[in-house]
Design goal:
It contains 19 helices and 13 strands. By secondary structure, it is α/β, with parallel strands linked by helices. The chain folds into 2 domains: 7-164 and 364-377, Glycogen Phosphorylase B (Rossmann fold), CATH 3.40.50; 177-361, Glycogen Phosphorylase B (Rossmann fold).
Length: 382
Amino acid sequence: MPQPEFTVFWLVGENSGDLHASLVMKSLNAGIPGLRHVGIGGARMQAEGLRPLFPFQRFNVMGFTEVVGQLGFFLKVENSLRRFFAREKPDLAILVDYPGLNLRVANIADNQRIPVLYFICPQFWAWKHERVYKLRASVRHVACILPFEEELLSIHNVSATYVGHPIAEEVAYELDRSGFASFYNLDESKRWLGFLPGSRDNEVRRMLPVFLEAAARFDPNVFEILVSKAQTVSHQLFMEIVESAGLKNLHVIDGYRYEMMKYSELLVSTSGTATLEAAYIGTPLVIGYKASLLSYAIGRRLVRVKRIGLPNIVLDRDLLPELIQNDLNPENIQRQALSFLDDPAKMRSTREELGRLKDILGGKQTSAEMLKLVRELLQIND
């Protein structure tokens, strides 16, 4: 008998989700022949066969005030998806992170009797605790990528499975240190200090100028400055900020992201997935975040956890320094960076502690675990 075909709807709203979902899609395509993929996702997902319904870049926004400016667009998306689900009736909806929109879409899909698999659980344990009740009401199953989330969800009677963290599959290196240095014309005799300003334009506007001011405080005869540019960031915006800094020892790293994380002696990173990637690789880092004044004021009232850095949250300790809002300034960045760079014993002990993340997050292969869950939800028998 021919293999039955299934249609899977996807909704991913940001760059890291696009990467995580694309690896899952690759596993699903290999394990379930004839799958059709449709929805919202980026270039990596489209390369795996996703038929996009909306331009991906319109979704890549973060922060209360930034989202408010896009409310009309998001309302249009919801109305369009409501009609799409009623007309097309996909066999499964896989919603990836992005809870502001995805929890509403989960309700729409559930009302159409479309099973929902939520991949990358909303961080209800950090803020907006009521989201756990929305998961229970509209989602068939939650695929968690942090080990403590499965137990927390089970307490609230939400069906969930810990599938491992996708970075365990994603982190790989193509170049050794010398090859990386040659590609970007780096001086191997100097110390390399890396900066990761974020994957969104609004993050780069706020973070990159501060990062570059901090970078200017380090002796160019001793340090090479590496600055990562995400593909999702406006090239013109990024380069205007970089060029205005006038740092002669600055190198823009627009590829080989994991090599930059591995070979830098220390990193300074915007809070987000990049901090967990860098920590998983084992490089000490300073974590920072600066939001709009309104977003920060609202966030302070809602956030329930005392840490923002994912490595610190997973390890449940204040291992890596966190600089938030006004504390994120060039002086503090330099001070925290030198507290590592000038203390080899601290660097060594931090690297050893970060090594625990591989044991915590790398025990399962996310793409394989997701394939099992999808086969169950589509009722595909071996």
